[in-house]
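MOLECULE: protein
FOLLOWS: sequence and fold
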Amino acid sequence: MIQLGGSVVAVALLVAFVRWLGVARPTPPLDAASAKALLDVEFPDHRPKATWIASDGAGLIARDGELALVLYKRGDGYVARDLPWSAVASLKPTSGRVTVRVSDARPTFAVSDDVWPPKELA
C-alpha cells in the first residue's frame, strides 16, 4: 500500500508539474509576418513569388514556380511539406474548404469563397 500510495503521489506531482510548465500552448493563427518568418525557416532555399494564407490562419500555401510549399497547423506547431503545383492547382473546394493530400496527412484549409486557386497564387 505504501508503494501504491507513493506512485499515486508521484504521478499527481508530474501532472501538476506539466500543467505548471504550460507544455501545451495555443498556436496563434498565421498572419503575413509570421507566415514569411515560418517560410524562411522551413524552406530556406526557396523564395516563393506568391503566398496564400487560409482564412482561419491555420495554414498556408506558397507558390515557387512549379512547386507548392504547404504549411499547416498540427498540434502546437506547423508542419511543412512541398508538392508539385499541379497537384494543388487541381483541387476542388467543397463547403468552403480545400483538402490537400500530402504523403502523411490530409490537411484542410478554409477558403473565403469557393474559387480555387485563389488569385494570389494564380
